[in-house]
Predict the 3D structure of the following.
Amino acid sequence: MPSNYQAYVDGSGTGDPDLLVIAGCIATAVDWEDFSKEWKVRLEQAHLTRFKMNEMAGSRMEVAGYFYRAIEESKIKAAISCAIRTAELRKAVNEFPWPAEFTNRDALMNPYYFAFKAITDMIAQYQHQLGIDGPVDFIFDEEGEKSRLVGMWDRLKLSSLPAFRKNMGAEPVFKKDEDVSPLQAADLYAWWVRKWHVDNVLDWGERLPFPWTMKRNIRRFHAEFGEKDFIVEFEKGLSPEAVLRWNIADPAAALRELEARERGISMSLPDPSSPLNLRPGN
């Protein structure tokens, strides 16, 4: 069952050797429907088939401001973003003292995976600060590393603490931004967050220095990962418990069993060989 809240997220800087930003907004499913109707009206008024912020840069900033006003006037609950320093990620992967048996390092070079993990996991931990009181379903732009991320959700949920896992919604889905208005709004916000990083605007998170006047201060959350952060994640990922969970052959079944335990449901046919039985208190 889908949750009441939906986060639409798009990326900016995919393929950039130094910086990837993914960002978007969270609202209820009903409020996104109302937002989409208004966004489509503005597309018609601007004679556009879809909105892309990189096409607005320069001479069409007034048009961009007009679309951002739709975000402000909607019931969007929060804006979220995550920045990955891709050059520092490569450096951390190459210099980390990996165990000899750990040979598949190429996957760790993918900054989109880290951004995907970070933004879903961090929102599960801090969503109460954004006024969100239920699980959040994520919808990503299909241009992101969809093929590398499909099937990762169960493993990510298994690696999360119970208090945060309950805030993680259904497995994220991927859609085309030209068909989905909230993804176009995410494109707008992601473009600006990346621009402020590139321009070294240190206080952007406090004031959102758009070239237009802000009329509503939407709650927002930002996470940023550099070399030291990646090393911390690598160390956590190599803990005995993390390795145990990551190597589970059927993560979907293991997750169902774990969530049933956390809900206090007795398993009618427990599997004594389940990896979940190897550590008490799970």
